[in-house]
Amino acid sequence: MAEPLRALYPGSFDPPTLGHIDLITRGVALFGPLLVAIANNNTKTSLFSIEERIDFIRAEVGNLPVKVDYFRGLVVEHARELQIPVILRGVRTISDFEYEYQMAMTNRALEPNIETSFVMPSEQYSYLSSRLIKEVYAAGGELRRFLPDPVHHALIQKLQNKE
Ligand SMILES: Nc1ncnc2c1ncn2[C@@H]1O[C@H](COP(=O)(O)OP(=O)(O)OP(=O)(O)O)[C@@H](O)[C@H]1O
Ligand SMILES: [Mg+2]
User: Fold this and answer.
1) Which backbone phi and psi does 93 adopt, to 5 degrees?
2) Staple partner for 66: which of 47, 50, 61, 127, CB 3.0–4.6 Å?
3) Cα(108)–Cα(47) distance, rounded to whole angstroms?
4) Is 27 in the pocket of ligand 1 (CB under 6 A)?
5) How far is the CA of 150 from the centre of ligand 2 (A)?
6) Could you say which residues of the chain have pLDDT below 50?
7) How far apart, in whole angstroms, are the C-alpha atoms of residue 82 and residue 37?
8) Is any atom of ligand 1 closer than 6 Å to the C-beta of 131?
9) What pLDDT does residue 104 have?
10) Three-class SS state of 149
11) Residue 90 lies in a domain
C-alpha cells in the first residue's frame, strides 16, 4: 500500500463480526487507507488467537486499502509511532457512548494531535457485539447472518472440539 494510513481502528475483534466489517468499510470511505489494530492484552483471555483474528479480518476486507496488525499497550502510542492521525471507533448505543467518550478524552490528554472519530454502523448491526455472539454460540444458538462465514464455521468447530 503506497498511500499513508489515515485512520487506526483498534479493538479486540474476538471474533470480528459483520458490525466490525461494516465499520471498516465506512472508515475507508471516510478516511482512506486504514489500519485495523488488534489489542493484545494478556489480561483478557481471548477465544481466538491474534493470528486467527488477523486472518478473519484479512479475508473479509478484499481489495480495500486495509492493513491488519496488533499492538500492546497504549493505542495512541501505536498511532503516533505509525503517524496515523485518527482513531476510529464505533458507537452502537448510548451505553457505548459513555465509555467511548472517556477513552477518547483520555487519549486526547495523552496525545492532543490524534483525533478520535465515531461512526455508527448500519442499523442491522447496531446491537451486535463479540461478547454476545460468543454467549449465544456457547449456549447452542446461531447467529450466522451477523458473522463472516469463516468466523461462523470456526465458532462451530470450537464448540465441537469442546464436546
Ligand atoms: N456492531 C458494531 N457496530 C458498531 N461498532 C462496533 C460494533 N461492534 C464493535 N464495534 C466497535 O468496534 C470497536 C472495537 O470493538 P471490540 O473489538 O471491543 O468489539 P465488541 O463487539 O465491542 O467486543 P466485546 O463484546 O468483546 O467488547 C469499538 O469501538 C466498538 O464500539
Ligand atoms: Mg467492546
Assistant:
1) -130, 175
2) 61
3) 31
4) no
5) 21
6) none
7) 11
8) yes
9) 98
10) helix
11) yes
